[in-house]
Amino acid sequence: MGSYRMDVLVCGGTGCQASNSIDVIETMSKEIKAAGLEKEINLVTTGCFGFCEQGPIVKIQPDNVFYVKVTPESAAVIVKEHFVKGRVVKELLYEEPKTRKKLEEQSDMPFYKKQERIALRNCGLIDPENINEYIAVDGYQALGKALSEMTPEQVIDEVKRSGLRGRGGGGFPTGTKWELTRMSKADRRFIICNADEGDPGAFMDRSILEGDPHSVLEAMAIAGYAIGADSGYIYIRAEYPLAINRLKIAVKQAYDMGLLGKNILGTDFSFDIHLKYGAGAFVCGEETALINSIEGGRGEPTVKPPFPAEVGLWKMPTNINNVETFANVCPILLRGADWFASIGTEKSKGTKVFALAGKVNNVGLVEVPMGTTLREIIFDLGGGIKNNRKFKAVQTGGPSGGCITEENLNIPIDYDSLTEIGSMMGSGGMIVMDEDDCMVNIAKFYLEFTVDEACGRCTACRVGNKRLHEILTKITEGKGTEEDLERLKDLSQIIKDSSLCGLGQTAPNPVLSTMKYFWHEYLAHVNDKYCPAGVCKALLKYHIIPEKCKGCTLCTKVCPKGIISGKLKEAHVINKEECIACGACEQVCKFGAITRM
Amino acid sequence: MAGIKSLDELKALRDKYKSSVEMRSSTDEENRVRIAVGMATCGIASGSRETINAIVDEVRAQGLNNVSVVQTGCLGYCYAEPVVEIRMPGKEPVLYGNVDSKRGREIVNKHIKNGEVITDLVIERSRC
Ligand SMILES: Cc1cc2nc3c(=O)[nH]c(=O)nc-3n(C[C@H](O)[C@H](O)[C@H](O)COP(=O)(O)O)c2cc1C
Questions:
Q1: Residue B49, min C-alpha distance to chain A (Å)
Q2: Which of A126, A133, A259 sits opposite B4 (nearest CB)?
Q3: Whether A5 and B25 lie within 8 Å, measured CB to CB
Q4: CATH annotation of A541-596
Q5: Contact A515, A471 (CB under 8 A)
Q6: Which residue on chain A is closest to B63 by alpha carbon?
Q7: Count of structural domains within chain B
Q8: Residue A23: φ, ψ to 5°
Q9: Does B53 fall in a domain?
Q10: Residue B49 sits in which domain range?
Q11: What is the pLDDT of residue B42?
Q12: pTM summary value
């Protein structure tokens, strides 16, 4: 090793694997051997590059060429053309949609231009299953530095001064949490890494664990040293098999190298890490429910205080942090608190990873400095709205958050600014909606999720959210009244005030925020029995545009109710009272004469 | 595998593996030296693969970590293959012809390391 002239980095993240990157890797490996290049070219399976929309991704270094949507067939072409003859395969480069220019380098792509990668620093750069590559990029140096050059108090102080706040949703200052846990009197203390990642649409934690598992293990050990803990647990959902597998490999390698276990790096600090699998319940991401689950109890939250920092796992002080929070720790120790604090806004330091999903062109993971605007994220990095439709809203904070509209797109986002406009940072899920999305239906969708995921322990959440969901269903079926809207508001407030845990307390947020910004849509549903986005089936009415109708009679033949009438070669009409909005007529019309209204 | 016993051992290990990932970073691209070896059919036929591998090997052996060795297509000097182009930051590119592996190593040592152009090998100094 060491004398390869070229590194070929192929994404082996879950997203790219789903689009066949395993076959791409196999084909490349075969073709490289066939060309006799196996001693010259190093084929590396890496973690996620983030640009999942364009996967599978293949990056060639040192040439700095970035190939997208690579298939096994085109992988063979890359070997023959690029590796053997030094010719870049133009067809496989990313095409900038606006200028239609083919871009060779990653750094030229709008998707990457504004990114600053701290938590994702090694994703797409190293082989996550090879600890030597992690060590080569300064892996375990931060732990080494902490153990041999810093006291636990100094470590805590550095993290405090960096301004790092929890990336799991709450935004609590990480250094302060460490300090509180350290100060709690006890015989034993624990570290927990929260890898439950329940927010639908968010997958940054998974990508970090798949692409750079050691960075989390190292940070957990550092936290253990800082608070005085000798063991840690990673609570990860069983639905993340690839992440679990990579974690297992990483833990074993770290033990083998003496970077976990007894007397790490010859010091008297010892630290063990255990994996605990969750069944994928959203509520188990809540820290007290998570602790119950690790202990073998039901995944139900308990009242806070006491906080886990005082009474946590096995009743011992426990520091629980999110995966992404941990992923920021090592760079802070190595590059210093001042460096980290120089990035971001006044009260939110560093970067945040967002998972872009929904009606946006570039679905994927992006990491940007705090204070970047939503407009930059959605329109510059995200490449704007799919199919040239119009932007309507973006949901941040998942089922606990709220929607944000056009008027707030220019606000520099951080924990506080998002809360101010009625949403929240949450874990960084970002679902983009366009004019074809009905906001009442979106609220209903999130409520359905929380009702499904509620543990059932407290009445406010168990019964209250169910009632909210029922009222929303009624409205989308055209049976709602203005009184229902008032009831939605009142009940939401009650649930927020009286639920036991964060799940119930935040579940009505999507309802309240869509009501705040899209009141007119709610009114249209209850008063005019009309869904402006044309989504709610029960409110859909089909209409034939007389000028466009050629009187071909095709629609009359497919209408299951037989309620379309008209003479041959004359404009037809639909009997709206009887229409069941099945849409069959719209599908067969060759003249685009049938519309929803 | 034996455990790592100290921070110094860990640092030594890092330095050992560093070169294996060095070429992956694309930061500081402007300040890097680029050595491009012509690897079209004519280049390969004249032995440019041996040349590029020798150059890579020498760059590593000399511990030059701001150098990228890449392959390029036909530069139109088929009579002088293997052709090697050197681009150093802030300097005009230099094109060498008939570079076998021995002369490839010489280029690394003289030109890249000491900034000494090997005049008898130069086929053109382009203007761009
Ligand atoms: C319903 C609910 C679900 C949660 N799910 C997660 C989760 O999946 N991952 C996570 O890190 N934190 C989740 N949290 C937040 C945790 O309770 C806790 O605040 C967090 O793990 C602390 O880590 P941090 O300070 O590093 O953000 C959830 C909270 C609630 C109320």
A1: 9
A2: A259
A3: no
A4: 3.30.70.20
A5: no
A6: A2
A7: 1
A8: -65, -35
A9: yes
A10: 28-121
A11: 83
A12: 0.91
Looking at chain B, the whole-number percentage of residues with pLDDT higher than 70 is 91
Percentage of residues in chain A having pLDDT higher than 90? 92
pLDDT for the residue A2: 52
Residues A48-72, mean pLDDT to the nearest whole number: 94
Q: How far is the CA of A214 from the centre of ligand 1 (A)?
A: 21
Is the predicted pLDDT of residue A164 greater than 50, yes or no? yes
Residue B128 lies in a domain: no
Going from N- to C-terminal start, the domains of chain A cover 6-107, 131-340, 351-434, 439-527, 541-596
Q: How confident is the model at residue A133 (pLDDT cuts 50, 70, 90)?
A: very high
> Residue A452's pLDDT is what?
95
Ligand 1 near A12 CB (within 6 A): no
Interface contact A136, partner B, CB < 8 A = yes
**Segment holding A365, helix H or strand E:** strand A364-369
Residue A114 DSSP SS3: coil
- In 3D space, the residue among B10, B6, B5 whose CA is nearest the CA of residue A148 turns out to be B6
CATH number of A439-527: 1.10.230.10, 1.10.10.60, 3.40.630.30, 1.20.1440.230? 1.20.1440.230
Collapsed DSSP state (helix, strand, coil) of residue A264: helix
Q: Which CATH number characterizes residue B85's domain?
A: 3.40.30.10
The tokens of A535 are what?
A: 């989504």
B1 within some domain: no
Dist. CA A402–CA A370, nearest whole Å = 19
Q: How many CA atoms, within 13 angstroms, populate the side-chain half-sphere of residue B35? A: 31
* B66 located within any domain: yes
Substitution target in B53, B70, B83, B87 with the highest count of A β-carbons within 10 Å is B70
Residue pair A115/A366 in contact (Cβ under 8 Å)? The answer is yes
CA B127 vs. chain centroid, Å, equals 21
Cis (ω within 30 of 0) for the bond into A56? yes
Whether residue A257 and residue B25 make contact (CB cut-off 8 A), yes or no, is no
Q: Kindly identify which residue of chain B lies nearest to residue A89, measuring between CA atoms.
A: B73
| A199 phi, psi to nearest 5 deg | -60, 115
The reported pLDDT for the residue numbered B84 is: 94
The pLDDT-based confidence of A239 (bands split at 50, 70, 90) is very high
B101 CB neighbours in chain A (<8 A) are none
Inspect the interface and report whether the beta carbons of B26 and A257 lie closer than 8 Å: no
Do the Cβ atoms of A484 and A523 come closer than 8 Å? no
Overall fold of domain A351-434: Ubiquitin-like (UB roll) (3.10.20)
Q: CB–CB of A265 and B7 under 8 A?
A: yes
| pLDDT at residue B124 in the model | 67
Distance from CA of A189 to the nearest CA of B (A): 25
Measured between CA atoms, how close is B43 to chain A, in angstroms? 9
Q: Which ipTM value was assigned to this complex? A: 0.84
Q: Is the CB of A287 under 6 A from ligand 1?
A: yes
Q: Is domain A6-107 annotated with CATH 3.40.50.11810? A: no
Assess whether the C-beta atom of A318 lies below 6 angstroms from ligand 1: no
The answer to whether the beta carbons of residues A86 and B72 sit under 8 Å apart is yes
User: What CATH homologous superfamily does A131-340 map to?
Assistant: NADH-ubiquinone oxidoreductase 51kDa subunit (3.40.50.11540)
Q: Indicate the helix (H) or strand (E) that contains A36.
A: none
Residue A596 CB burial class (10 angstroms; 0-12, 13-18, ≥19): middle
**pLDDT at residue A317, rounded to an integer:** 98
B6 close to A (CB below 8 A) = yes
Is-contact A267 B8, C-beta < 8 A? no
Cβ–ligand 1 distance for A206 under 6 Å, the answer: no
Residue A59 CA to residue B122 CA, distance in Å, equals: 33
Flag whether residue A95 sits within 8 Å of chain B, measured between CB atoms: no
The 10 Å CB-count burial string (b at 16+, else e) for B89-120 is eeeeebbbbbbebebbbbbbbebbeeeeeeee
Q: If we measure between CA atoms, which residue out of A457, A417, A331, A382 comes closest to residue A113?
A: A382
